[in-house]
Amino acid sequence: MHTVSIIGFDGALASAITGIIDLFRLAGVTWARIHGEEPEPMFRTQLLTQAGAPCRCINGITLLADGSWNGDELPAADIIIVPTIGAPIADILARNTGLVHWLSRQDASPSLLASNCTGAFLLAEAGLLDGKEATTHWGFSNQFRQRYPEVICRPEKLVTVDGDIACAGGGMAWWDLGVYLVERYAGPEVSRQLAKAFVIDAGRTSQAPYSALQAKRYHSDSTVLKLQDWLDTNFAHTVSLAELAREAGLSERSLLRRFKAATGDTPNTYLQLLRVEHVRHHLETSRRYIDEIINGVGYEDVSSFSRLFRKHTGLAPGAYRSRFGR
User: Where is the HTH araC/xylS-type domain positioned along the sequence (predicted)?
Assistant: First the structure.
């Protein structure tokens, strides 16, 4: 039986703790019960806090701990999981320097380390993600990149695995992280059974369909912001880099440098994202023909745009409408 340690701290997201505990504790159990078979538990779990005291989560729920991550009275963990930070991230990092130091020492342990959502900030703060691929909630990815430039941040991915460190993306991605870890430690059959029992879409690979273009505006370059406002109303037209530079009052070289620094993208990539976002909105809220929607953002080649749309959202336009259309 494998041991999973979940790290508890004040201000954590309760569901990211209790939910993943449920997944591990019921792997090999729920499916067997559904089919009238003898349950075969695969994992034991333990919630650990700094001193073994209860932790008060962001929703006001207090969770009892099984022990301290700083002690040695409990079984060594095969997997250590850092849940989502629900409170302000900077406050949690400042209040948990002891945990950060303890995590930094786990690099030499045989345990697999994992985080969900903004829990990746604690792994990165401990220096565990430098030079590694990681993901976090898409809405905090710019903040993550600025604070940890040595980390290869992949916010479009739902789960990243680099060596013995796994990270899951936003919010409820602990589902996907848990299913992945169950498969890694208990095998694909147990993982498939668990996903079916919990009615989890185990085929998800991207959090891109849930992201918002608004995250690209979390910067303070007023010139770039004005150009973004201009693009908001002109994205359906053919726009050259020279025209954008004139609109911004910058040279093309300066525009490329400042736009990339502010948004993380080139102007052309940002323009593509605007078009993708516009099409996404209409796929979610209207029943207009897909070809008509795509033509409306300046693309005559529907197949070309469909490839672009899939690149940024992980889904073809038709599949996106089927999943998210209202």
Answer: 225-323
